[in-house]
Amino acid sequence: MIRVLLAEDQAMVRGALAGLLSLEPDIDVVAQVARGDEVLEAALAQRPDVALLDIEMPGADGLEAAAQLHVELPECKVLMLTTFGRPGYLRRAMEQGPPGSCSRTTPPRTSPAPSAARSAASGWSIRASPPRPSARARAR
């Protein structure tokens, strides 16, 4: 069983992700928090295998929370959740070592979150985001 912590400040998104992940027989959402400064305490209490962190949250951003987890709970794999926030944010996140990222703009039915959690728990690096139009399609 893969134990997952969700950190997302938007309650609707957090609830939808928790519901989606709970449908998977091998994934257990063990904690949900709405603020970055709540991540470490919840992680230390619940010992998740994977933390799915929104990059932009109140209290502390996902980058700060990921850095704390890296020091205090290094066995917990971190996936950054983003909707294409500020330029350079995701790049900075990846430089800090999380194994991957997921976009929260993907429709729930095709969300990469369950497979991303499995990949991270297994030690794989992933980058899950919605498909982007080709340069040719953008030029039209």
CATH topology: Rossmann fold
Main beta sheet: 6 strands, parallel
Give the CA-based shape.
globular
User: What integer value in Å does the Rg equal?
Assistant: 14 Å
- What kind of oligomer do you see? single chain
Q: Under the CATH scheme, which architecture would be assigned? A: 3-Layer(aba) Sandwich
Please work out how many helical segments DSSP would assign: 6
Overall number of structural domains: 1
| Strand order of the biggest β-sheet | 2-1-3-4-5-6
The total strand number stands at 6
- Secondary structure category: alpha/beta
The percent range for strand residues is: 15-25%
At the first level of CATH, the class is: Alpha Beta
Provide the helix percentage: 25-40%
Ends distance? 46 Å
Low-pLDDT runs of 5+ residues are 98-110, 124-138
Order of helices and strands: EHEHEHEHEHEH
- Name given to the CATH homologous superfamily: Response regulator
Mean pLDDT: 76
